Amino acid sequence: MAEIISMPQLSDTMEEGTVIKWNKKIGDKVSEGDILAEIETDKATQDFEIDISGVLLFIGVKEGEKTRVNDILAIIGEEGEDISHIISKSNKRDTKYQNNKQDRIFISPLAKNMAKSIGVSISDIKGKGSGEYGRIVKRDIEYYEKTNLKEVNQKIAHSSMRRKIAKHLTFSKLSAPHYYLFSEINVDKLIEFRKNLNNKLSLEEKISFNDIIIKAVAQSLKKHPDINISWKEEEVILHSQIHIGIAVAVKDGLIVPVIKNVDKKSLLQISKEIKDKVLRSKSKKIQPEEIENSTFTVSNLGMYGIESFTSIINTPNSSILSVGSIMKRPIIKNSKIEIGNVMKITLSCDHRIIDGAIGSSYIHSLRKFLEDPITILF
Question: What residues form DSSP beta bridges with 107?
């Protein structure tokens, strides 16, 4: 014999529930203890476990829809059983309720006083009650005030790029034990080197600080190949080529185009390639193969005025360099205090494969190149 499954009262204050998901469909066999549906109450979303067995013959509430406590949720019986009389009886009850609802607005005295105090007409809330038989109660007035009389938070769905970034960075942060090495570099000679170089170049050929840093990073990797590596569960990959990823901010998130064989390219070649790939990254014209196979990554936020920061390793790399802005600071020079230009860098390392001494040696070499940048040309 068919049995009606009513909307259960899953909390002491629950007056109605929303079906978030049906775990069974009409015609499916169900057994005692099965989770028939997920139901959202005024407090939480809960699994609804049934205590009878049979065949699901009828679903009275669609996913995403709500109904009152004790209203018909489903019917379970024997396969092929006639349940039309049960459904008809349920429909008559709903029709009677709907006719009464059209005649008057059901509202509790407290809710009525609250609406009056905030200057809301009851007719504006008609049909929005969450109490029994659609009665407007206190929480309905509070919700209406929050969503209609105050600022409403905007909900924006995650883009596919943002989802991918989140997944990639979460995996990297959780799988690779990060540690960080901080260093401050005197860049007076770097500024002078760039100025003298650009004085000899056309406007289109101008070299940026980042171009020089990328070249110095590559030269340092040549001296310390034990940084240019990747961790695999069964092995370590020692990369023979130096491919540097450049973190680029784009509208939907972050793209890391790769400059390949940086150590074999001139500053002009590096600069031209970076300009091209950054532009195409921002216009979404970069090709998939151009953002793959980096062996080391550089993230530079100096142009945004960020003094120093740490970055999450861009797996499968084992380290990433964070570059801050150039700042004027008092420095000690020839036993005297002078105003100089300094830049802070941070090397994030995967401690599974790069120990502190190895990372420190790399930072030492990079600092020497940047403090005397003419040496990167040799």
Answer: 136
Q: What is the CA radius of gyration of the chain?
A: 33
- Give exposure, 217-227, as e/b (b: 16+ Cβ within 10 Å): bbbbbeebebb
Q: What gap in Å lies between CA 41 and CA 140, rounded to an integer?
A: 14
CA 341 from centre of chain: 36
Q: Where are the beta strands (DSSP E) in 29-107?
A: 29-30, 35-40, 45-49, 54-59, 66-68, 72-77
Question: Are the CB atoms for 217 and 296 separated by under 8 Å?
Answer: yes
- H or E stretch including 176? none
- Point out the residues that are catalytic: 351
Predicted local distance difference test score (pLDDT) of residue 192: 97
Q: Which amino acid is at 331?
A: I
How far apart are alpha carbons 240 and 228 in whole angstroms? 8
Helix, strand, coil share (%) of the chain residues, nearest 5: 35, 25, 35
For residue 77, the cross-strand partners are: 55
Cβ neighbours, 10 Å, residue 199: 7
Tell me the sheet residues that pair with 55: 29, 77
First to last CA, the chain: 90
**Tell me, what amino acid is at 9?**
Q
Neighbours of 156 (CB within 10 A): 6
**Claim: this prediction has a pTM higher than 0.90:** no
Of 183, 181, 182, 192, residue with least CA distance to 340: 192
Regions of the chain with pLDDT less than 70: 11-13, 42-44, 89-104, 131-133, 149-154
What's the CA angle centered on 285, arms 303 and 299, to 5 degrees?
A: 30
SS3 label, residue 95: helix
What are residue 344's DSSP bridge partners? 184
pLDDT digits (tens, 9 = 90+) for 231-274: 998 999 999 999 999 999 988 789 999 999 999 999 999 999 99
Euclidean distance between CA atoms 329 and 1, whole angstroms: 86
